[in-house]
Amino acid sequence: MGGESSKPAPPPSPPPSPLLRNPWREITWGGTRQALKSMQEFQPQNEEATIRVLLYGPVGAGKSSLINSVNNVLQSRMTNDALASGTISSHSFTKIYKTYKIKKEGRGNFYPFVFNDIMGLEEGSGVRTDDIKMALKGHVKDGYKFNPSSSISAGDSGYNSSPSVSDRVHVLVCIFNVNTQIKPSVLQKMREIREAASDLDIPQLAILTHIDAACGETQSDLRNVYRSKYLKKKIGDFSSSLGIPMNCILPMKNYSDETELDSDVDALILNALKLIVNFGDDYADKL
């Protein structure tokens, strides 16, 4: 009698998918025309206010690139108004407090919201948290050059002693590269800035940039952003470390190596811009 025949080994189980079956947040892809029209028609509830958006975050997070990316979408073409560094550095490329207006159709017309870029947060140097606190209250004039060794104070040429409603910050937005680790000292600065904004009841959001490089799924298809298990965990980790709620954290890709606009990139930018402007508008209406 022959030996008992052995059963073939079962095929190996496929590896678990890095993607969720259903997205954990909904977004309308391809609906950029309506979203753009909404921004074009936006007018603040407070007629005296221009909505001021203050961007802050570690060096190299993409603050200047975000301003350019928003400008690209609203202008429907590539722009380079906010100079951004294309090299990796531990020191901030931005040195002054600068207000960026975005042109609207018609000569001399601008959108009723502006962005302020600020010197990046660095370990042991960079912009001082006291300067950002002053900026939140509208006490920092446009063009003020940051001094890492001393904060702005009353009597300085860059100090605004009588800020108007439009000089004040109406929404604070943290920009962070999702592929980097926050150094403890920088995280502490970020928390101090958040606390200062909270004391003033200023609404806060966070934008996590460079999501296309975060994982293979978003690199191959940006529409996987809300299906990526990896990105969802990174957003959850960021929420826990800084205390910003998940629904106030927006993953986004800035324009970087492109020379033409992309509808999926635009969709994420407009989705973030709508929340930023609406949050800021609600706050300005209370002032």
Describe the structure.
This protein is of the alpha/beta class and 287 residues long. It has a single domain (49-168, 181-286), classed as Rossmann fold (3-Layer(aba) Sandwich). Helix content is 31%, strand content 10%. The chain has seven helices and six strands, in the order αβαββαβαβααβα. A six-stranded mixed sheet has the order 2-3-1-4-5-6, sandwiched between helices. Strand 4 (171-177), helix 4 and strand 5 (204-209) form a beta-alpha-beta unit. The protein is globular and about 90 Å long. The model is unreliable at 85-92 (pLDDT under 50).
What is the CATH class name?
Answer: Alpha Beta
Name the helicity range: 25-40%
Q: H/E order of the elements?
A: HEHEEHEHEHHEH
Quote the average pLDDT: 89
Number of strands: 6
- Spatial strand order of the main sheet: 2-3-1-4-5-6
Structural class estimated from helices and strands? alpha/beta
Tally of DSSP helical segments = 7
- Low-confidence blocks of residues: 85-92
Number of domains: 1
Instruction: Kindly report the CATH topology.
Output: Rossmann fold
Output the radius of gyration.
22 Å
Named at the architecture level, the CATH assignment is 3-Layer(aba) Sandwich
Shape field:
globular
End-to-end CA span: 94 Å
Strand content: 5-15%
Largest sheet: 6 strands, mixed
